[in-house]
Write a structure and sequence with these properties.
CATH class: Mainly Alpha
CATH architecture: Orthogonal Bundle
GO biological process, one term: chromatin organization
Pfam family, one: MRG
Number of domains: 1
CATH topology: Enzyme I, Chain A, domain 2
Distance between the termini: 39 Å
Protein name: MRG domain-containing protein
Shape: globular
GO cellular component, one term: nucleus
Low-confidence stretches: none
Radius of gyration: 16 Å
Helix content: 55-70%
Subcellular location: Nucleus
Structural class: mainly alpha
CATH superfamily: MRG domain
């Protein structure tokens, strides 16, 4: 997925950062209220796994939408910001060209099963 302009190491750093943000802010920022209840039910019955190992592209898109608001409070230099923007642009292009990985609205709504 990376281009000549984005060195592999920098791409790995951005991807690692996205996973860390996903796991850290998942419950408080990325879930809707019904999903929080669903998550509690799942976690009560199973061993812990990080949210990034359980949830899919719909939730990842929520993170990408909020990502600029999250990183604005960090000490990221201009060069790193440019790299992050480039990687995210590439990622958005990939997601757009692979839209089949997302649930349809009917599938997404029917997947909300509450205990």
């Amino acid at each position: 997925m990376h281009s000549v302009e984005t060195p592999s190491h920098e791409l790995q750093v951005v991807c690692s950062s996205l996973l860390q943000y996903f796991d850290k802010f998942f419950t408080g920022r990325l879930l809707y209220k019904p999903e929080v209840r669903q998550l509690r039910s799942v976690l009560h019955n199973k061993e812990f796994r990080p949210p990034s190992a359980i949830y899919g592209p719909e939730h990842f898109l929520r993170l990408l939408f909020q990502y600029p608001q999250l990183v604005v409070h960090t000490d990221i230099n201009e060069n790193t910001t440019v790299i992050i923007c480039e990687v995210l642009n590439q990622l958005f292009k990939y997601l757009e060209s692979h839209s089949e990985i997302f649930l349809s609205m009917d599938q997404y709504s029917s997947s909300w099963v509450f205990a």
